[in-house]
Amino acid sequence: MKRIKISGLALKNLRRKFVRTAVLLLLVAVVTGTLLGATIFISGMRNALKIGTYRLGADVLVVPEKNEAQAKAALLSGEPTSFFMDRSVYDSVKNIEGVKRASPQLFIKPASFTCCYNVEAFLVAFDPASDFTVTPWLQKNLKKPLIDNDVITGSSLPVLKGDSLPFFGTLFNVVGTMEPTGMKFFDQSVFMTMDAAYAMAANSKTKSMQPIDIDTSKISAVMVQVQENFTPDRVAIRIEHSVNGVKAIASDEVVSNVRRQLAGLLKGILGISALLWVISLLMMGFAFYMIVNERQRELGLLRAMGAKRAQIFALILNEAVLISVTGGLFGIAVGFSLLLAFKDIMIKSLKLPYLLPSGDILIELVFGAILFSIITGLLASLLPAASASRMEPYEAIRKGE
Q1: Distance between CA 329 and CA 139 in Å, rounded?
Q2: Measured on CA atoms in the order 333, 336, 340, 344, is the torsion positive or negative?
Q3: Residue 132 dihedral angles phi and psi, to the nearest 5°
Q4: Buried residues in 75-96 as b, exposed as e (16+ CB within 10 A)
């Protein structure tokens, strides 16, 4: 006599009631896909914030007081901008107590990006002699400083090493491309030396139809690294007190603002996910109660044929696991696809940094989502399975007729 396997019997039962099985699969898929997509999205923002803040390297950003909003927008969403202040600000800032290192930068918004007009490039010029944000990357990856019209580009710009880029009538040579950070300030920027930027501005008067007026007395910002025994907030206050007309933005302030936004977003997503989970749990539980009531005669016959209580219990749980795994995998595939499809739109509307988590983290999240879907199915079917296993064979057959 051929022995019947519990898993095979469970699969046949699910196929027999295809519509009901499909509805249960859809419930699991919606909850699993929503939770996974939300988790990956939030993880990506946190990932970008962590890597981008590390790459920035500065504890305090000093900018003209009237351009504070522009500077924050440039850091968080990479919006190209141009604003300037006198170089004397840098000379003052670097001598303030608590400042370990300071370095000036220039922010220049190009009229257009000749390669692709749908990409907004941001020109950032730094001082190689004092810089501590871009120079470490150069030392690690290029093993040499930028010279003349050499530039390095962010990962989101559609250019390759060896390409040439014209800005304001000057041709620049791409000598390297940075790895992704998720922050457009880095990923969509073109980095050059301040000498090259000043030369470009001077030459633009004769070489460009849209000249720019920037002389060597102008800078846009001062990047500040504070001493170990000082906090960025404290040094920022000292700078604003000592230098007129500037705003000192602590990196912690920018990060904490983003984290507050993420916290609010996370609460909303978790609230919706929890509501969906409770609804699906109740609906699945009700569906399994219906399944058990409809199949009383079948379950009674199985018991009469020698099936043990534990086997009846396992049969219902097997059906729940099959639904959970199949629905979970479908939900993961759809949820991940929708996230990739609408990621750019969401990032643009939220104006927050984003960097997709690494492959290892994604695999962990996927396994976590599958485990979550299995637990959901098991919880929903636990009481119906226990009820089915307690049925007496004769009573179950009589009620099922």
Answers
A1: 45
A2: positive
A3: -135, 15
A4: bbbbbbbbbbbeeebbebbbeb
Based on its alpha-carbon atoms, the radius of gyration of the chain, rounded to whole angstroms, reads 31
What does the pLDDT look like over 334-378, one tens digit per residue?
888 888 887 777 666 666 666 677 788 888 888 988 888 888 888
CA torsion 354-360-363-369 (nearest 10°) is: -60
Amino acid identity for residue 133 in this structure: T
Q: What confidence tier does 57 reach under pLDDT thresholds 50, 70, 90?
A: low
Q: How confident is the model at residue 2 (pLDDT cuts 50, 70, 90)?
A: very low
Q: How many residues does the chain have?
A: 401
What is the spatial distance between Cα 104 and Cα 251, in angstroms, rounded to a whole number?
16
Residue with tokens 């699991």: 28
Task: Determine contact, residues 194/125, Cβ cutoff 8 Å.
Answer: yes
Taken in order 272, 276, 281, 282, the sign of the CA dihedral is: positive
What is the spatial distance between Cα 16 and Cα 339, in angstroms, rounded to a whole number?
A: 34
3-state SS, 116-166, equals: CCCCCCEEEEECCCCCCCCHHHHHHHHCCCCCCCEEEECCCCCCCCCCEEE
CA atoms of 192 and 107, how far apart (whole Å): 11
pTM of the prediction? 0.64
d(CA 224, CA 375): 50
State the Cα angle at 191 between 189 and 193, rounded to 5°: 155
Most confident of 72-81, 95-104, 308-317, 334-343: 95-104
Token pair, residue 346, equals 């969401």
DSSP for 9-64 reads: HHHHHHHHTHHHHHHHHHHHHHHHHHHHHHHHHHHHHHHHHHHHHHHH--SEEEEE
